[in-house]
Amino acid sequence: MEPTTVLTNVLVAGVAFVLGVRLAYPAAGDGVASAVFLSLGFFATAIGAAFGAAAHGLDPRTDALQRDRCWRVALFATGFIGAACIASVAFFTVRGSVRTGILVVAGLKLVAYFVRVARRPEFRVAIMDYGGGLAVLFAASVYAYVRWRAPAAPWLIGGALVSFAAGTLQARRVVLHRHFNHNDLYHAIEVVTLYLLYRGGALLADR
Hints:
The chain is mostly helical. The chain is 83% helix and 0% strand.
């Protein structure tokens, strides 16, 4: 069992759910699809983090099967984050057939991810997919800022950059304390990512 990792996962799940609700309600009311899809990414984050907490809280020596099930749910939920980011981009940067094409790519990417993670239920597979979705969001936000000075763009760019930094620290297994490992640090920094993306999402407007 990893109590600190459980707690930081629960923190991420709680923050993601609350911010997802706060973003989804006005976005749905105003018909802003880009923000609605981004909020779906928040909900996917909440589900993934919650099941991740459950997996880290189970003893692999006595609850190996249940731990594996929770871990797989967490990984599958994570796939929706990248897809949601790409779908959001389709609505705040383009129109028409290009938008349709991006949405198709987001769907195909999600299916491909499910197939891959079913064969290799590893976090690095999930983080690469999540990172890919964020990279698309980052590039689209830079474009939106340069082209239209979109007010949401700086927040979204900041969120993506903070998440990239968090992923780098985790990959290098940076540890601040023996009771606060690289996973815990990643989760703590991702809370900042969620806030920045939320602020950006609240300012999104469909093209």
